[in-house]
Structure formats: structure tokens, C-alpha cells
From TrEMBL:
CDD domains per the UniProt record, alphabetical: BDH
Record's protein name: Iron-containing alcohol dehydrogenase
UniProt xrefs under PROSITE patterns: ADH_IRON_1 (PS00913), ADH_IRON_2 (PS00060)
The keyword Protein transport is annotated on this UniProt entry: no
Native organism: Acetobacter musti
Amino acid sequence: MLDFSFCNPTRVLFGRDMFPQMEAHIPVGARVLVLYGGGSVVRNGTMARVLAALSHHEVLEFGGIEPNPSYETLMRAVALVREERIGFLVAVGGGSVIDGAKFVAAAALYEGDPWEILETRGSKIRAAVPLAAIPTLPATGSEMNGTAVITRGELSTKRAFRSEHVFPVFAVLDPTLTFTLPPRQIANGIVDAFVHVLEQYLTYPVDAPVQDRFAEGLLHVLLDVADVTLAEPENYDARACLMWAATLALNGLIGAGVPQDWSSHLIGHELTALYGLDHARTLAVVLPATLQVRRGEKRAKLIQYAERVWGVRDGTGDEKIDAAIGLTRAFFERLGFETRLSGYDLGRDDVSALLKALERTHGASYALGENRTVTPDVATAVFGASL
Ligand code: NZQ
Ligand code: ZN
């Protein structure tokens, strides 16, 4: 096992009746800004419940945060936080709203140009307005981590930052808030969480059976619950299961002490930045191609994944790897995902734009992934395998 330092400071209030407990975790007298997205939380009654639970605080609202939250919109929220001397943020929505609130929290107290936060990946953040997260879409794990991904339209770029200062103080995980999600978004959540686990699991062995078994457990749960939660949106137990699995998939626990890849995510971000694909849709294209191209360096864990997650017992190592990649692709396709660029009318001509975008984001001689082997040549091969 690798050395690690692990701390997750986010309190989780989990269940169908936890809203009344949240105000106790917000400083008395703090002016609160509630941030939300395009209005789903207003229409489905979540907002009214949040406001009722904050009745002892002075509350302002900021709506309109888009999927793949935009820097330009968030800077308007930053101005509001500064003008109104806001002391606490509450993000109500999907990962985009929670990520957006993290950026607002850090940018409001940042000395200098806030875009620098993205350029320096959060390393210069020294303080942030405290925030809480009320996720309405189980997917990103943003409610219990210190990461955010922000899009800047005028630069066609999507960038991540992380900082200990933007971990939510608390997260209210109420599975009933997800009942109104359209199937497309639930499927996105399942695939995003599944790939989060794989980015931390499918690397190379470091003798870390605790992390491996946690990761395999989460993958099994996601496979078990996928069909039920899609077919029965108001099945509380299934949604509770999905919600907790998605949170645990990216709250730092399974990634502590093991190598991590994340190259499928970073390549996928360029597909969203250039062509607007949903985040999870990018992963369903890039991950199978990545596993195919990099099967040599991931060989031992791919065989372990085939045996323990997909129950593939027979065949040579290569046959097991083929089966695992095929079953992963088939799982995504069963959930309604295209797993090739051609499914989005993208082809060879678009690959050069994607490669240039990767260079703009990571520099001309980037080297991504757990072994720093995902260079421009390997990224070219990954796009080639995803056509
Ligand atoms: O905007 P509203 O009207 O709220 O509608 C949203 C949005 O259109 C809708 N929605 C959310 N909850 C709903 C609902 N509709 C009905 N009922 C509900 N209960 O869903 C749509 C998509 O929302 P969004 O927040 O964009 O989705 P998601 O949670 O998948 O977040 C995606 C963003 O998170 C980033 C992605 O890059 C992307 O920008 N990620 C963040 C990560 C992190 N912070 O750790 C890690 C991830 O890998 C990911 O990169
Ligand atoms: Zn993701």
C-alpha cells in the first residue's frame, strides 16, 4: 500500500428526514446564499424545504447555474457574495451546482484574478466561504470532496481544481430528492460513479486489499442497483443505495493509498468543452478505449476486475481482459449510452481538435495517468480506438 494522508471533514446527514438538522451546523447570524441550477429544485419542491429549514437565517438566492457550470455565471455570484457579505453557501442541485458553489466560495475570498484558481488547480487557495451541499443527483461525489470542475465558454475550456478549503461542511443526502430525475440523468449518475471507482481501481497492484475490496463492493452495488433504480424511480431503498455508493465512490476513501488514473476524465472533459457531451457520456466513450489501448500496463488489475467483478473464470489472461472490456461496454450500452465517437457524429476530423484542446489544457508535453504514460501519442491512440 502507498503512503497516504486522508481526511474527510464533511458531515453526512443521510435520510428522508434530515433537513431539520442542518441549521445547527450553520453559524448563528451568518447570511446564507442558496445556489441552484436551472429550476428543477424549485419545480419539485426541494427549494421550499431548504428555505423552511433555514428559517432562523437571513437567506438570499442565486439561480441559473448551468450544467457544466460556467465561469461567467459564477463570477456574478462571487460579486453577490462580496456585496452582501455572505457568510455561508448552500448548494442545492447536481454536481454542477455544488462545483459552482465551491468555486464561488474560493473566488469570493481570493486575492487576485479568480481564473488563476483554475490555472493553478486550486493550489493557491488560502480560504473559502464555508459551504454545504444538498445533492439532487447521485453522481459526482462532489458533496463530500474538495474538487470542482468549471467551464469557461469564451476559452472553450473545462478545468478542475481542488482544495481542502472547499470540502462541504455538511451534506444532506436525501434520496427522495432524486425521485424527479429523468432516466437519462440517473443513467449518467450510475456511469459516472462506476467510472470514478475504476479510475482509482484499474491501475496496478500495490497490495491494497482493503481499497480493492471496497472498490469491488461499490462496483457490484452499482451493477446490482442500476436496473431497479431506473425502472422504479421512487424505490427509496434503491435510490438510497445509489446515492451512498456515488458519494463513497469519490470521497477519497477508496483512493487513499493506491495509484489513480483519471486520464479518461481529463480526456472526456475536452469532449464536453468542445462538443457539449454530458460528462458521463464522455466517460462511456473514452474509458473502454483507454482500457483497450493501455491493457498492457493495467494487465494485472484488468484480470482481477474480470474475475472478481464480472465473474469471468475461464480463458487466458488476454481473453479475460477482452471479456471485461466487452462487458463494461455492454453495461454502458444497456443503460442507453453510445460508446463510440461515431455515435455522436464525431470522427477523425474532430480528433485533431480534441488533441489540440488537451495540449492547451495540460501543456504540449503532457503525461497523464497513473504511470504518466498518457502522452499525446497515447491520447491519439485512445481517440483512434474510440472512433
Ligand atoms: O439545472 P437544473 O434545473 O437543476 O437541472 C439539472 C441539470 O439539467 C438536472 N437535475 C438535477 N437534479 C434534478 C434534476 N432534474 C430533475 N430532478 C432532480 N432532482 O440534471 C441536469 C444535470 O445536472 P448536473 O449538475 O450538470 O449533473 P451532474 O451531477 O452529473 O454534474 C456534472 C458536473 O460535475 C462535474 C462534471 O464535469 C460536470 O461539470 N464533475 C464533478 C466532480 C467532482 N466535483 O468531484 C467529479 C466528476 O467526475 C465530474 O467531473
Ligand atoms: Zn466523473
